[in-house]
From TrEMBL:
PROSITE patterns, alphabetized: C_TYPE_LECTIN_2
InterPro entries (UniProt xref): C-type_lectin-like, C-type_lectin-like/link_sf, C-type_lectin/snaclec_domain, CD209-like_CTLD, CTDL_fold
GO molecular function list: carbohydrate binding
Organism: Silurus meridionalis
SUPFAM superfamilies: C-type lectin-like
Domain C-type lectin: residue ranges: 152-265
Cited SMART domains: CLECT
Name of the protein: C-type lectin domain-containing protein
Cited Gene3D superfamilies: arf6 gtpase in complex with a specific effector, jip4 (1.20.5.1000), Mannose-Binding Protein A, subunit A (3.10.100.10)
Length: 267
């Protein structure tokens, strides 16, 4: 209604056509300005959302960067702690290495010393073994001598050949049978100057001398001119005859009833 009244009022002027046109242009410009303002008012929220989204993205990126920095810092702290522990372990291992090297050198020195002592002990062992062998040989020789001393003995009384043989048997022995030169030499040395019966006789057959174990005589140690069977009464043999002048050849034939000691030997 206002617009119409304005139009109609303006028609009463002197220039009715110009007023109507001018009013119409003002109204058009006013409508265009209102349209632009309304359009700007409509487009303004869409333009204002872009900075907000950008700010949110930047904030998120900053937050992520801060988190990454914190994580890296914590990781670096952890790695630094591990590094320090590894350095401590390295120092400890270095100290242990030096200690082990020192102990190794000490053990090597002890090894050399022990080897030297070992060689010395081995040398002493050889010497002791040699001495032991010598002592064993002397012991065996002494034992043999003792055994011989125990095996050979002289009867306590001078008796006939047969009675002396009985005395030997009563002590678990018999008149000696001399089977080697060594045995004859031993008896001559041990019973030097003692006339004694031996287990040799030819009573069964004249001239056929037999030992008491029934073996014939093979090795002979008669003194010169013996046996001579003086007056055909000498059928038993003695050793250590007082008429003999030699060390080994000391046998002679005597009458079997002649009283002399008996030389006994245990089996």
């Amino acid at each position: 209604m206002d617009r119409r009244s304005d139009i109609y009022e303006n028609t009463e002027d002197n220039h009715p056509g110009e007023c109507v046109y001018a009013n119409w242009e003002k109204q058009r410009d006013s409508c265009i300005l209102n349209d632009q303002e309304s359009k700007q008012s409509v487009d303004k929220p869409a333009g204002s959302r872009c900075p907000t989204l950008f700010a949110v993205c930047v904030s998120l990126l900053c937050g992520l960067l801060l988190i990454c920095i914190i994580v890296m810092f914590m990781k670096l702290n952890t790695m630094a702690g591990e590094r320090d522990q590894m350095l401590i372990r390295y120092d400890n291992m270095t100290t242990e290495k030096i200690q082990l090297q020192s102990e190794r050198d000490q053990l090597q020195s002890e090894k050399v010393q022990l080897q030297s002592e070992k060689f010395q002990l081995q040398s002493e062992k050889v010497q002791l073994q040699s001495k032991r062998d010598q002592l064993e040989s002397e012991r065996d020789s002494l034992n043999n001598s003792i055994q011989q001393c125990l095996r050979y003995f002289i009867t306590s009384q001078k008796k006939s050949w047969s009675d002396s043989r009985q005395d030997c048997k009563a002590k678990g022995a018999d008149l000696v049978i001399i089977s080697s030169k060594e045995e004859q030499e031993y008896l001559s040395r041990r019973f030097r100057g003692v006339e004694a019966w031996i287990g040799l006789t030819d009573t069964e057959e004249e001239g056929k001398w037999m030992w008491v174990d029934r073996t014939p005589l093979s090795t002979k140690y008669w003194w010169d001119g013996e046996p001579n069977d003086y007056k055909q009464e000498e059928d038993c043999a003695v050793t250590g005859s007082k008429f003999a002048k030699a060390e080994v050849l000391t046998w002679a034939d005597y009458p079997c009833t002649f009283p002399v000691f008996g030389l006994c030997k245990k089996n």
